[in-house]
């Protein structure tokens, strides 16, 4: 099976296993950009708390722009790396004010997609994942953000080589129109089943598609379609064993 067909089958099975994701990022693109910067290398909970505190102290982005970096850093302290993030957020807002005359990313919708991508990537602290999240969830454009979970899962599936940049490797493979659902379902798979340590291959709907699973599991186990949806057996306690 070629990689494009394999990823389409992955998408189909994850949609069957997980359904359509009900929670997804969205809203104003600038809000999304700042929130994504806060999410880098931290948990969703820490990001949400830091973002909520930032907006509580500074209800408008104009207020953040006018505030000293130290005060911004204090507001987002819970996300970690707060001094660095605060400086980047202020620099982005300052650039928007100087170049566009307003604190908004709406102008990107009038640019060619590739130009909008380049502009976002030119911002401090913005890599492909962050830029693609804004372009996909903020503008609905067909970009595919790759976080650490997606990178791990797609490498184990054999879709991305160890030395390949995952955004470039996956971009031509993603079924058009399925970017959001596939992105969110792959993240869920990585968080709940295909974890970095001790992946739960017996609970995965993709074992026969996965190079990693095929190298670890009994071939007869993988060949049994019922196994894909079984949880690993729970170990009995000494009391239960009696």
- How far apart the termini lie comes to 48 Å
Largest sheet: none
Q: Give the CATH level 1 class of the domain at 29-138.
A: Mainly Alpha
CATH architecture descriptor name of the domain at 29-138: Orthogonal Bundle
Order of helices and strands: HHHHHHHHHHHHHH
Overall 3D shape: globular
CATH homologous superfamily placement of the domain at 29-138: Hypothetical protein, domain 2
The percent of residues in helical segments reads 55-70%
Q: What does this 3D model show about the protein?
A:
By secondary structure, the chain is mostly helical. It has a domain at 29-138: Endonuclease III, domain 1. It has helices at residues 3-18, 29-39, 44-57, 61-66, 69-75, 82-100, 113-121, 128-138, 148-156, 166-170, 179-192, 211-216, 219-223, 238-241. The radius of gyration is 21 Å and the shape is globular. The model is unreliable at 228-242 (pLDDT under 50).
């Amino acid at each position: 099976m070629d990689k494009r067909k394999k990823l389409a089958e992955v998408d189909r099975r994850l949609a069957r296993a997980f359904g359509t994701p009900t929670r997804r990022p969205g809203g104003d693109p600038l809000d999304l950009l700042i929130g994504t910067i806060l999410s880098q290398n931290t948990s969703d909970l820490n990001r949400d708390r830091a973002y909520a505190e930032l907006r509580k102290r500074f209800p408008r982005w104009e207020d953040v722009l006018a505030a000293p970096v130290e005060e911004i850093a204090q507001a987002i302290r819970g996300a970690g790396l707060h001094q660095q993030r605060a400086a980047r957020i202020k620099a982005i807002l300052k650039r928007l004010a100087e170049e566009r005359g307003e604190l908004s990313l709406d102008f990107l919708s009038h640019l060619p997609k590739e130009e909008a991508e380049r502009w976002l990537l030119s911002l401090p602290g913005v890599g492909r994942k962050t830029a693609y999240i804004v372009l996909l969830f903020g503008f609905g454009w067909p970009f595919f953000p790759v976080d650490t979970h997606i990178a791990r899962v797609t490498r184990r599936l054999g879709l991305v080589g160890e030395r390949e940049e995952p955004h470039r490797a996956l971009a031509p493979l993603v079924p058009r129109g399925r970017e959001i659902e596939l992105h969110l379902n792959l993240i869920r798979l990585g968080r709940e089943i295909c974890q970095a340590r001790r992946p739960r291959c017996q609970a995965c709907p993709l074992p026969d598609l996965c190079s990693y699973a095929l190298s670890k599991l009994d071939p007869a186990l993988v060949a049994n379609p019922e196994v894909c949806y079984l949880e690993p057996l729970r170990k009995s306690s000494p009391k239960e064993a009696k």
